[in-house]
Amino acid sequence: MENASKALIIAGAILIAILLISIGVILINSGRDITSTGTAGMNSQKIQSFNAQFTPYEGSHTGSELAGLIAAIRGNNASNESQQITGTFCRHG
What we know:
Elements: H1 2-52, H2 63-79
């Protein structure tokens, strides 16, 4: 009888340990999801602010407006070596 009660106590302790480990894994995974969501939001904001410099130049523009675009591109390329911008301009008759 003593062996059976000791076996039940050991089995209960093992089940509690498995439960605690499972809860820990769930908490760690939910923390990762929260941080990755926050990082994605920051990257999205960086992209939007970067693109905001150049979106006014979308479509057809005059030569002086294109000169402003070229100046913006040169300014970006001089200050940001990791995001160099190149472009091709063509004239539609």
